[in-house]
Every structure is written in C-alpha cells, then in structure tokens.
Sequence to fold (918 residues):
Amino acid sequence: MTPSPTDSAQTDLAALLDREGAERELFDLLRIPSVSADPAYKADMTRAAEFLQRKLASLGFTARVDATAGHPLVYAERQNVPGQPTVLIYGHYDVQPEAPLEEWTTPPFEPTVRDGRIYARGSTDDKGQAYAHVRGVELLLSQGELPVNVKFLLEGEEEVGSPNLEPYLREHADELKADVIVISDGSRFAPDVPTVTYGLRGLSYVEIHVQGANRDLHSGSYGGAAPNPINALAEIIAKLKDDQGRVTIPGFYDGVEELTGEEREMWARLPHSDEEFAASIGVPALPGEAGYSTLERLWARPTLDVNGIWGGYQGEGSKTVIPARAGAKVSMRLVPGQDPERITRLIQEYVPTIAPAGVTAEVRAHHGGQPVKVDLDSPYVKAADRALTRVYGKPAAFGRTGGSIPIVAAFRSLLGAPVLLVDFGLNEDAPHSPNESFAVEDYHNGILTSAYLLQELAE
Amino acid sequence: MTPSPTDSAQTDLAALLDREGAERELFDLLRIPSVSADPAYKADMTRAAEFLQRKLASLGFTARVDATAGHPLVYAERQNVPGQPTVLIYGHYDVQPEAPLEEWTTPPFEPTVRDGRIYARGSTDDKGQAYAHVRGVELLLSQGELPVNVKFLLEGEEEVGSPNLEPYLREHADELKADVIVISDGSRFAPDVPTVTYGLRGLSYVEIHVQGANRDLHSGSYGGAAPNPINALAEIIAKLKDDQGRVTIPGFYDGVEELTGEEREMWARLPHSDEEFAASIGVPALPGEAGYSTLERLWARPTLDVNGIWGGYQGEGSKTVIPARAGAKVSMRLVPGQDPERITRLIQEYVPTIAPAGVTAEVRAHHGGQPVKVDLDSPYVKAADRALTRVYGKPAAFGRTGGSIPIVAAFRSLLGAPVLLVDFGLNEDAPHSPNESFAVEDYHNGILTSAYLLQELAE
Fold:
C-alpha cells in the first residue's frame, strides 16, 4: 500500500531522530557568544545569524540575513506545498549577558551536559527552543517534502526589547504572511505537563502624580492644616481596590471575557498547590480577587499593582517634611475584552475624582499592550494538542500566562494571524540566570513536537 | 518721694533707650560669621562667644565661655537679689550658613539697614533677639540693680541640632536652676500682635516597613496572586485616618487635653484667614480634622503625616515589578496629655493588625519629643502679658506653635522650670533664607520687652 499523507503523518518520527547530530549542531550555535546587549559581541551576532542562514539554506530554504538598525535577523522560507497552510516560526538567536560569570559552574559559552541537562547561555532561551524547530523541519525533510509551507523569522534583539522588530514586521508584512505563528520561547506548566499557552494579559502602565502645597512644608508648622500629598496618594491607591480585591475604576470590568466552565475545570486539574506557590515566594498568604483561584487570578483576571512609589524624605534618620508632591507607577494587567487605551482613559478620569480635598491628582499614560487569546476551539490549538499528545503520550494542558509579551501582540496586530505558544522549556531552566540549562530530553521532544505540529497543521 | 520698687517698675524705659549704642553693638556681633555648620568658621565661633562673654562681664555678670564637644557656649549670671525669682535667658549666637550667597542683596555679614530693617545673617535668628535681652538687662542696670536674678545661657550649636546642650544641662543642672526660662528665638503671630507662645506640640516619629515576597517579582507572572507591599502600605496609611481626618489608632486620643472655651475664643479673635493661609501655600482647600479651626488643628490637635515613602521602581520609564518591600516615614505631632513613648507603642501595636493578608508590617521607632504647655494662669504668663502691654499698648495674644522645639522639652524636663516663649521676630524676617532681616523697631521693642519682663517677673 502506498503511504497516504495521513499515514505519513502517523509515522513515529522518534525512532528517526538523529540525536547526536542535533546536539552537536546546537552546541556549535551555543558556542557563539551572541549577547545582544553588549557591543563587544557585535561580530558574534553576525556569526550566529550566518550560522542559521547557512543551515536553513542547506535545508532548501530561501534564506537570508537582513540588516536592521540594530542586530541582523534571519529570514527563511520554503513554500513548496501550495494550498497547504503557511506556518511562521519565530525565535531569537541573541542571548542574555552572561554576568555574573563567577556563578557559572562551567563557562556559559562552552555547552556542557551534566545530569541530562545542557548548561550554556541561550540553551533554553532561545537557541535551544528555536533550533528544535530547525531540526524538526530537517527531520520531516528526511522523509520527503514538508507538509506545510514554513517561514522562519529569527531575530537578534529579543533580549534588548526587540526595538527593530515592529518596523521589520510592517515593512515585510506581505512576505511574512502566514496562517499561524508558532513561538517556543518560554516554559511549559510543569515537567510532565505538555502545554499550549493560548492567552497573554495586556497592560496599561501609568503614573499617578499628586500635588499638594507649592513647596515642601515643615510638618510642625503646617501639620494638621496643610494637605499631605503622600497621605492623599495612599488614600487614592487604597481606593482603587475594594475589600474583595476588585478594581473600583468605573467601567474597568466592562467587556471582560469571563472564564468558561471548561477552562476553570481544566485549570483546576493542573498540578498547582497554593501552599507551594506561597512558599516559593515566601509569603504567608495569597491575597487576590475573591471568587477566583490563583491560576485564574494570574491568567484570566485583570490586576492593578503599584510598581513604584515615592515622595518626601527617603534617607537615613528623620525629616519632618510635608512634601509638595508624591507619585506612583501603576500597572494594570488586562485580559481579553479590555482595551489598554480605554482602561488608561478610565483611570485618568477616575483618579482626580477620588483625590482628597486640598491636593490635585493627575494620571500620566506610559504605555500599553493588547491582551491576546487564541480560540481554544481553533484548528491550530487542536493541532498543537494532537502533536503534543503524540510526543508525550498524554493530551496537552491549555494554560495562559500572566505576563504581556509585546512581540506577540505585534505579530497578532501586524500580521493578523493567531499566535501559538508551544513552549519546550521549564522554569527550572533558569533563563536569564547563571547556569541556564535545557534538558536534553526537552530538546529532542521539542524537535519531535515541531515536526508533528507541522504535520498536524497540514490536516 | 523715694522711688519704691513698684514705682521703678512703672518707669517708662522707652525714653531711656540708647538706640544708637544698641544697634552699633548688635552690628558688631552680626559681623562675626558664626556659622556653626561650617568648620571653616570655627575661629569665628570662638570670637562670637568671647564677644558675648566680655559684654556680659562688663555688665557685672560672672561670665565665662564653656567648651563643649562642639562649639563653646556662654554662661553668665548675676544673682544680687536674694529672695527674688531667678530667670534663665536662653539664646544662641550661631547662625545658619549664608548660602546661596548670590541671592543676598547686601553681604550676609555686613549688616545693612534698608526700609527700617537690619539685613544680616543672624539678625533675627537669633543674635538680634538674644542681644535684645543683653541690652534689656543693660537698660535696667542703667537705673539700678536688676529686679530679679538673671542667668544667660547662649549656645553655639542650635542650628546644628544642639547636640551638646542636653549633656551640658545635665552636668550644670544645679548651676542653671531657675524659676522660669525665657526664650526669644521665633516669630510672633503677626506684626501688630505681641505674642506669648505657651505651648508646643510633641512628636513621635516612626518608620513603617512592609515586607511582601522574599524577592522582587514580575508583575505579569505574579500580578493578581502575589501580595503587593506598596498597595498594602497605601492601605495601611489610608486606614490610619478616618474620613473625618481623625487618627484611628486605638487609644491615640486618650488623655488629650481639650481646648478650653477661653482658648478657642482667644484664637478665633486672632487675625487669621483660611483663604490667605491656603493661598500662601498654593492649595485649593485645607483638609483636616473635622470640628476644629485651622489654628486649633495646628496648635492643639495631634496629627499623623507621612513624611516620606518609597518602594519599587522610581526611575524614568516603566518597570513591571512587584517589589519585595516598601516603607514610609510617619510623624505624629502630639499635644498635652499625649506621651510620645506611649503613642509610639500604640502605632507599633496597631499597624500589624491592619496589614492586609500576605504581607508583614513592622513599625520601627525613631525619636520622640514631649509636648509642652505652660499654664495660662501662671504668674509667668501674666507677667509676660503685662510686659508686652507696656511695650505695645495692647494686651498680648496667647498662642501655641505646631512645631516641636526639642530644647524646650529638654529645659522643661532637665531643669524642671516652665519655659516662656516671647518672640520678637516675624515670619517675614525670613530666618534660614537669604536676606534674613530683623525690623529695627522689633529689636528696640525686644530690648524694652526684656527689661519690662524682668521687672514684671519680680512682682
């Protein structure tokens, strides 16, 4: 019987993995100290980009290194299956600085395997995870043509805030057109939990400024009669949440997508312990919005956190001053259904109305980011589920993440395609820290996941 | 008829003033740049002390310059009238630094008269006011023996916090024994209002420290689930006062001496305008404790003001951090009936009980000071009233001050005598600022007031 595409998609690719070759190549890439933050490594940035460009070209991709105002990025495409979906794989080849060097057990740019883990800067973030996709494509190509059209976008400035990515996306929007975008640049929920991350929170970041008197006053001569902007700021901040942990800004929750029963049940089944979570950050209790579990609070509920506060005398000893002004930085994490610009406007309108008598309060907008969610019923999510099931022998968990990944929102808005976050790493990989590592098994499972995912996306 | 003591006390001393001599001598003293904060002026400090010692010796006082661990102080006494009260006059010969020099119209140590005002550093604070007492004594001596025993204590470190005064008071408590202590080192209520200040607020100064997680957390990954110590601190501060502006610490108001109807009426008659007061500090309203006027809030009611606050990110731009800790400096002005140590203990007990779940809050004691009040019916207050009436042709106003003057509480507690604050200056003298000045008339009225006060205290 001639193998049909469906049969081919069911081939067990695990047996075909070239483990030794996949590790050797990744180690070569990890040896290039492509630290984007440090100008001393400029030449290494180019070396890393060219390494990837050559590899993808050797796999039959049209591949090039594109200059930007900063570090170059690698673009490659192989579009041999018209009518099939196009998948854009995003990753980054730049890494965090290696400091503090003395805390590394083995040198950060000499990859070393200990206890089943590859120790090297960039091993998990993001060279290891990005290269798993390169090897996943190679694995499929060893069996014939790719089942979908594939594009790679591998940038060199993720660790410095991707300052040139948005302009690039705008300029190359046509070329980068895809049906779905796949990113593997984070951590799955737990070691034995294959995970699809289908949502990110958005952000509204503002500053509150409170003005009292026209100058600093002596707290003896004026205390009791003059308005105190720090007391006033504290009052304003305290009023921004009620005793149920809910944000009090009128209209704040308007349009917020409530969790479905299915999602709540799904998350309740995840291996999570409030006790362990509290212990891991050293707190005696986990306050938060009433009526929601910790994961729900983290992934699906908006927040209001003060990120910084200042006013008056902060030095040693005492100074009896009623300062003229005080301020705070406040970030609100947003969830699907909330718009950052609208939320920013709402807090700008609300704060002056709750400022105590005698002071004036003003809210200055900083920046924002859209929340992102992929429909759980979308074929892309289901394809990822099937791929992960084939690798791990169990269905995927579907979680979200509490953070905001600006590039994801940028992809979403500039390229108009859904973004699938399929992470191969783990928190214990310690990205950004000394002794960053990536489990050898996670690397190979990443290669397999990539190959199966491309197969499943073809269905 | 031989003049009796009573008759002599009724002599109009104004006609006997040696205005020219009094001004010439004060100018000589003002020319000595006795800046206690600046080691460059060390020799001038000694010169100023010796100037005063020689002058008092020339008036028949036993006078000496006493070394301390810092700048010397001048002690002098003339005790020729056994059976009569002893009056200790305190003042200071050191002055504030002159900076910013470029803002002075005429040099700070070249006293210049313009528009009836003596412009010079120290003219009002406190050389001019202290020297008025020296010349007041001289005026009386020109008519015969002093009516009371007089001691002078003129220190050289008031502008640097009087670090060596308390040890000196302890060591010389017997020698400094007095029935009443007179200090002229401040401002009277208004130009046409001769004032006796009969009360000072005390102080409890503390720091609140709030601890959240064991490290700074990412507000995306943890926001909504992890406790935020800044939000918690704001909530704690907001809870320390109710919506009537009253402090909520249990027991805070226990024992507070309520104002008498007489005091309230007396203060209500003082020339004060809330509108002008608010305008002078540039605020649209004067919040404060309900049920009390502005002067009552300033002089007779305890306060709770945050003097400094900090936590998280205070730099430019944004950082999405939930910090591990936050803190604030808090001062409470206290009134008669409140004890600083007790109040400090009360807030230390209360704050942990109102800390939101998930954080721990701790209050660290800084320092405190006792509130001071002189009985309005005391013979000393009445003597001051009569003396001021003789100078200004109208009765004195009796006010208090909102600040805490640590040396007053020290005099009170270490020497056990009541302290009379009879100020000759005005706020518009701008002590501590460039172009400090003292009205020539206020100087001569100060001399007269001093002489009359010593006469009246003999009665």
